[in-house]
Design goal:
Deoxyuridine 5'-Triphosphate Nucleotidohydrolase, Chain A; about 10% helix; mainly beta; two-stranded antiparallel sheet; 14 strands
Length: about 180
């Protein structure tokens, strides 16, 4: 049975002071935490040095195969016809707040996409976030570069934390398929 908690918060998006307060009180966690990554209503996330490149044709009933890639300090070129899984450096933990992850404008204007679908983070999630990366042109990326931002929202009603197969993921995590 899932835990049910009545939300003590008003519905809305968390602002910088509230993100900081909730981090300080342990109601959400971002590790590593650096105050200079906080924006007016989001927190900047950074690209981990480990990525995976898809090496097979896709089939929803079959497992995929990937090649491990490591981004060195002098960067790694991503190719337009390839599909990559990457992760954030930051480990996110959110029991009370659903969140949304989106690309940052400067990265998007280099025609790099970080998600192939909605990038929701459900209440109860803890782990590094997996990014599904594609590029429109050959593009060099660097370890630790700012790649995304996360916004936290307050839910309306009781908080019900449901089980998820992606909780606890570390590094680029492969698809668990359609269940």
């Amino acid at each position: 049975m899932a835990d049910i908690i009545t939300s003590p918060f008003k519905a809305g998006i968390l602002t910088a002071p509230m993100i900081w307060q909730m981090q300080s009180e342990g109601k959400l966690s971002i590790d590593p935490w650096e105050i200079n990554n906080l924006t007016s209503d989001s927190y900047n996330l950074h690209l981990h040095h480990h990525m995976k490149r898809l090496t097979n044709d896709l089939d929803m009933r079959s497992d995929d195969t990937y090649e491990d890639l490591f981004i060195l300090e002098d960067g790694l070129f991503l190719e337009p016809t390839e599909c990559y899984l990457a992760s954030t450096i930051e480990v996110i933990g959110t029991r009370y707040f659903p969140a949304d992850v989106s690309g940052v404008t400067g990265v998007a204007r280099k025609f790099l996409s970080i998600a192939q679908s909605s990038h929701d983070v459900h209440m109860g999630f803890t782990g590094q976030l997996t990014l599904e990366i594609t590029v429109q042109r050959r593009l060099k990326v660097y370890p630790g570069m700012r790649i995304a931002q996360i916004r936290f929202f307050t839910p309306v009603g009781d908080i019900v934390v449901m089980p998820s197969s992606y909780v606890g993921q570390m590094g680029p995590t492969l698809s668990k398929g359609i269940e």
